[in-house]
Amino acid sequence: RNRGTIGGSLAHADPAADYPTVIAALRATITVTGKKGEREIPADKFFKDLFTTALKSDEIVTSISVYAYGSAGNIGGCYLKHRHPASSYAVVGVAAIVEVKGGQVSGVDLVVGGATPNPVRCTAAEAALMGAAPTEDAIAAAVGKVAGALENPMSDLYASAEYRAHLATVMAKRALMTAVARAKA
């Protein structure tokens, strides 16, 4: 009773929470149940706005399905966050999943949370890495596109919009580098 659940965290849709960012990067499907039965909502369609989801007033989250990556050994992931000193919630959080085959990036998911009301998939950065050798230069070029994915970053007393965009770029590079190292391990 005194602990939160993953479903509760997703339904609350706090932009500074960790689970929404990670669930979006994992391309999860969220199953919700209400008076009219069950429906499945892809994570990228679930989060609508600040503290707002696709849940209807009579629905609750009943399960979350995540793709099983298996044990191929060529996939690595990483979640990093810059913690707010008072709450430990993410000022900015970044989730990266990278698949490396034949010395090239064959799959990449990069999602930033905390900077905007909803988790943001950095599609231009993902596209820049696809098919490239996972080098530091290629990753640096890709993360140059991260700030552009963040439309209207949030600003508060702790972190300005510009600071959040900068943090997202720095942390995206670190998360991708770690994910690549884990994919190669």
How would you characterize the overall build of this protein?
With 185 residues, this protein is α+β, with helices and mostly antiparallel strands. It is 34% helix and 30% strand. It contains 7 helices and 9 strands; from the N terminus they run H-H-E-E-H-E-E-E-E-E-E-E-H-H-H-H. It has helices spanning 6-12, 18-25, 43-46, 123-129, 136-143, 146-149, 161-184, and strands at 29-34, 37-42, 47-49, 52-53, 60-65, 75-83, 90-101, 104-113, 120-121. Strands 6-7-8-9 form a 4-stranded antiparallel β-sheet, sandwiched between helices. It has a 3-stranded antiparallel β-sheet with strand order 2-1-5. Strands 3-4 form a two-stranded antiparallel ribbon. Helix 4 (123-129) runs antiparallel to helix 5 (136-143) and helix 5 runs antiparallel to helix 7 (161-184). The longest helix has 24 residues, at 161-184. The relative contact order is 0.17.
For the report, how would you describe the main beta sheet?
A: 4 strands, antiparallel
Order of helices and strands: HHEEHEEEEEEEHHHH
| Beta-strand proportion | 25-35%
Spatial strand arrangement across the major sheet: 6-7-8-9
Number of strands: 9
Secondary structure category? alpha+beta
Unreliable spans: none
**Roughly how many Å is the radius of gyration?**
17 Å
- The average pLDDT is 94
Coarse shape: globular
Give the distance, in angstroms, between the N- and C-terminal Cα atoms: 40 Å
Note the total helix count: 7
Helix content: 25-40%
